[in-house]
Amino acid sequence: MARVVIANVSKTFSGPRKEGIHALKNVSLTVEDKEFLALVGPSGCGKTTILRLIAGLEEITEGTISIDGRVVNNVEPKDRDLAMVFQNYALYPHMTVYENMAFGLQLRKVPKAEIEQRVRQTATTLGLGDCLQRLPKALSGGQRQRVAVGRAIVRQPKVFLFDEPLSNLDAQMRVQLRQELAKLHARLAATMIYVTHDQAEAMTLGDRIAVMRHGAVQQVADPIEVYRRPANLFVAGFIGSPPMNFFPGSLVGSGGTLRFQGRPAAGTATAAPSALALNVDPAHASVLAAGAGKPIILGLRPEAITDARLTPAAPGACLDAVVEVVEPMGPETFLHLTGAGYSFVARVPAARKYDVNEKLQLALNLREAHYFDPTTELSLLPGA
After folding, report:
1. For each successive 10 residues of the chain (384 residues), what is the average pLDDT?
2. Element (H, E) at 218
3. Is the peptide bond before 242 cis (omega within 30 degrees of 0)?
4. Secondary structure (3-state) at 120
């Protein structure tokens, strides 16, 4: 397998009026040997473009891409020793499963005995052993996608590239194939780069995830690090379901205590100071003290907001709110609330039934709070 190094890569496409459209902007990223890296971000952020540049399907505007220590900018796609699995299965409809999986090896003039061994071994691994003589039209969507993955595996490439391979499947099949891909990576110990807009796929599959936005990498870290210590406002809002709640306001120093004073953003509620006034956790206050008097954005995950009847609120860590929408999820419930001029979501245990328009006092776990600079959008806490 191989280490992939993307160094200062930019990609510019030509628009309808010959204007430059910047798909990637000075991206640097290293995928270690045998690593599973998930590229995640909204549509149009450049993640598929990175995959196509690695595969050689697009030309690089600036920068270099190296595979196993070899710069491949000018290397033909067929000579890069990669295998790519696309969003659409792209199977030959007139060929059996066996023929689809064997076709690439036949073009490379691999001996028949070796083709037979590779195809049958891979089919067994993917649970396709009984399907080898079927045509694609006789397969389910999940089976077809496994054939596409199997066609890549039999080639035994240095790097596997996956371009949203599960997005066309139903939710249950996506979960099943996600598990199969994780097992496959563990079994093959292969270098894999996986593109998705689904954060659940990125979090569960990736050894590390790279969060992208507007053609630039926002943060690269293991999934738990990205969730617990997002580098900026975008990562904090993109990773997590429901996403992090944001409360615009400012820091106020008073009597040796640092407090967060709410000030809802213009257009969402009144821009005047709200009733939300919270004591900043002492562990954060020492870091944030220099920002007293300046605007700031407080971030709280839904699980950091709960019913004060279940978890009593600490002094200076409560908020009165009204329930607008109740979403029962089985073991937990998502409450969409309004209070102090803000709209936000709380994740609470399902032990109690909640009603629309019910008034609640909420307990806020400010030890789990995040703080962001509203101008740069960067996290103001260390470790992010």
Report:
1. 92 88 94 96 94 95 95 93 86 94 91 94 88 93 87 90 84 82 86 93 94 96 96 96 95 84 66 75 90 91 94 89 95 95 94 93 95 95 74
2. strand 216-221
3. yes
4. helix
Please tell me the total count of domains within the chain.
Answer: 2
Q: Across the strands, what pairs with 163?
A: 195
Separation CA 250–CA 262 (nearest Å):
7
CATH classification at residue 336 = 2.40.50.140
Q: Whose CA is closest to 219, among 205, 207, 232?
A: 232
Kind and range of the H or E run holding 125? helix 112-125
Cα separation, 64 vs 11, in Å, equals: 11
CB 292 within 8 A of CB 252: yes
Would you say 265 and 248 are in contact if contact means Cβ atoms under 8 Å apart? yes
Q: How far is CA 158 from CA 113, 168, 265, 348, in A?
A: 22, 26, 50, 46
Distance from C-alpha of 148 to C-alpha of 136, rounded to nearest angstrom: 10
Q: What is the pTM of this model?
A: 0.88
Which domain range does residue 147 map to?
A: 4-232
Q: Is residue 15 located within the same domain as residue 144? A: yes
Structural contact between residues 37 and 20, judged by C-beta atoms closer than 8 angstroms: no
- Residue 292, φ and ψ in degrees, nearest 5: -55, 135
- Based on the fold, state whether residues 89 and 127 are members of the same structural domain: yes
